Amino acid sequence: MSNGEPMSRMKVAVVEGDGIGKEVVLAALRVLDALSLDIEEVPVEIGYGKWKRTGKAITDDDFDIFESCDCIFFGAITTPPDPDYKSVLVRIRQEFDLYANIRPIKGMGSGNNIDFTIVRENTEGMYSGVEQVFPDAVHSTRVITRRGSERIAEYACLLARGNKGDKGKRLTIVHKANILRSCQLFRDVCIGVADRRKILWEDMLVDATAHRLVLDPERFELIVTTNLFGDILSDMAAALIGGLGLCASANIGEDYALFEPVHGSAPDIAGKGLANPVAAILSLAMMLEWFGRAEESDAVHDAVSRVMATGITTPDLGGRCSTAEVAEAVAAAIGKEQAT
Ligand code: ATP
């Protein structure tokens, strides 16, 4: 998933957002500190807190700051109680054309061999924003284009490709083409790209995929699907590996990206030190990989695995540690690794 050569000086817009977004971003930045990389962090305030203060969740000035940075590291934001509110995250994804949403689902600890990635189309489908509101009906238009399907299929095929000596991953193309014409286009384009790229593929209806994910998740290697299906399946998949607190994601475009934990702002546990920071820390590892810093990214993954294996976890995983304690342990594990 690397963006190419390692970048020297990296500049990251940091959005803590609301609720547990603030706590998990702080935790991830603590881990980043331990790597002693030359990264400039630019804080940007957007979200519900800003909306309460100013009436706007995001401004054009915020977009100017984003543009001056290489990418965004994002916590989570709470949706303001405003019927005219348009999702800030959907807007950022569309403005920067972050078309590929990558969500690795990997079991941690012995006995859990689940290891697959969901590649979700991120700019169209049910979230295209094309809606007509009538007095007694609302039409939300599902837009699927050849170009949108082709580029997400190309991205998935890139991830499916094996390195030397390894056969690569089987690509599961998930759709509802027996009912939806838009899904027929998506499926056919994906199959065409996979054949052209010589990727082993299968296709599966979304409802059958949900069923098989629960019964036999270890059979999956790589899934490519449309926006809403990917959104739902990835939250479901999160439950298979211990919950939302473990699931990282990257939103990738041609030359810009946003990295965020899959979970939201979780107001029920906010401010109590209960939030699991692992999803945010693993999102940071995805950012490092995108920056071309594979070694540091691997170091973060290793440190997280080691810390979790010693039972240093937050209450969502049955542990008794706080958000900050887990982050501190991961940072210390990185420090030890670097010292050896
Ligand atoms: P939002 O409205 O911002 O999406 P939400 O509470 O509806 O927030 P999530 O934040 O995605 O949705 O999470 C649902 C529930 O899962 C939370 O209420 C919380 O109990 C749990 N949860 C989510 N993330 C974490 C985490 N990092 N650590 C521990 N528990 C979490």
Structure in words:
It is a single chain. The chain has 340 residues and is an alpha/beta fold. It has two domains: 189 residues, Isopropylmalate Dehydrogenase; 128 residues, Isopropylmalate Dehydrogenase, CATH 3.40.718. Strands 2-1-3-12-11-4-5-10-8-9 form a ten-stranded mixed beta sheet, with helices on both faces. Helix 5 crosses helix 6. The longest helix has 17 residues. The radius of gyration is 20 Å and the shape is globular. The two termini are 28 Å apart. The mean pLDDT is 93. Adenosine-5'-triphosphate binds next to helix 1. The site of adenosine-5'-triphosphate (ATP) has 18 residues, from helix 1.
Short description:
This protein has 340 residues and is α/β, with parallel strands linked by helices. It is 41% helix and 19% strand.
Considering the chains and any ligands shown, give keywords for the structure:
340 residues, alpha/beta, Isopropylmalate Dehydrogenase, 2 domains, ten-stranded mixed β-sheet, 11 helices, globular, binds adenosine-5'-triphosphate
| Net shape | globular
Number of β-strand runs = 12
Fraction in beta strands: 15-25%
Helical fraction equals 40-55%
- Can you count the helices? 11
The second-level CATH architecture of the largest domain is: 3-Layer(aba) Sandwich
- Strand-pairing-aware structural class: alpha/beta
CA distance, first residue to last residue = 28 Å
Poorly predicted parts: none
* CATH secondary-structure class of the largest domain: Alpha Beta
- Element pattern in H and E: EHEHHEHEEEEHEHEHEHEEHHH
